[in-house]
Amino acid sequence: MPDNASQSIKLLPLHLSGLRWIWLTAIFIALDQWTKYLAQTYIGEFETIEVMPYFNLVLRYNTGAAFSLFADQGGWQVAFFSIVATVISLGIIFWMWTTPAKNKILGPGLALILAGAIGNLYDRLTLGKVVDFIDWYYADYHWPAFNIADSVILLGAILMLLDGYFHSKESKSND
């Protein structure tokens, strides 16, 4: 039986790889940027538009990471998170290229994470900050504002977990 460390990485033909899901990435990058444009056009910064109980539209800018972590660091974090997002995006593209297209959970999951990473990266590169506008709350507790890019990263991560769960079950049943 071959050792996993000695197995080489196989780049699949594009149409047989997870890159066939790249159209999903393009759709969600466009949706993310369009909704951020609408938020910046129609919502004033720190304005709150009540949509329904527990849900508002707001306009917030985040120079940090998730939950505004490192937002008050003076600017270095924008370049740092831009570099990290670029490296991760390139890694995800490579991962998609080595994932068989028949994997209908991992491929779309990676495509969604890539869309979110690129959507927020675009904001950092063009604005120096990420545009957030979705505000869920209960009573006086508000979840930190977020955007479509953040949402598809979460959805993609859930799909990756499901893929791992199902592949784990398949491996056990094949033993």
Automatic annotation (TrEMBL):
It catalyses: Release of signal peptides from bacterial membrane prolipoproteins. Hydrolyzes -Xaa-Yaa-Zaa-|-(S,diacylglyceryl)Cys-, in which Xaa is hydrophobic (preferably Leu), and Yaa (Ala or Ser) and Zaa (Gly or Ala) have small, neutral side chains. It is an enzyme of class 3 (hydrolase). It is a multi-pass membrane protein. Pathway: Protein modification; lipoprotein biosynthesis (signal peptide cleavage). It is found in: Cell membrane. Coiled coil: none annotated. It holds the Pfam family Peptidase_A8. One of its GO terms (molecular function) is aspartic-type endopeptidase activity. Its EC number is 3.4.23.36. Belongs to the peptidase A8 family. This is Lipoprotein signal peptidase. It comes from Aliikangiella maris.
